[in-house]
Write a structure and sequence with these properties.
The chain is α+β, with helices and mostly antiparallel strands. The chain has four helices and six strands. Helix content is 40%, strand content 23%.
Amino acid sequence: MKVPDLPPDVKFRTLTPTDEEIEFSFEAKKQALGLHIRLKWGWDEKFQREVHDQRLREKPFCQIELNGRPIGTLSLQRLPEFIRFGEFYLIDSFRGLGIGSRILAHCLKLADDKNLPVERQPLCPRATTILAGFQAAEVGVLFGFSG
């Protein structure tokens, strides 16, 4: 799914499989989830790279850019019955500034405009939940974002 830009400053560009963009997307994931993974299971760099590469092959990803600078990645897919909100990572220096909330609200509005529910694709597929009939702010709270 081509994610429209979020004026005035956020653009979504299809991630291309260059070494530089793959490394950036892995680093964004590592910054966002690395500590949690290390604490729960320990960090195995080789395994994490393999999983990341597999996910990049399985579903579409966008590089998120703020004023032309890459700040994170997003996987958003339109399927016949819903829009799947997949992996979404911002690098450390851009978390806690409200950018993630803006991006989430933007993605939810895209689904609302198409009259489709949103499925959050968690890291553990067994925990998938359909989020239908929620306002963006309500879902933002469920996803751990604040205004």
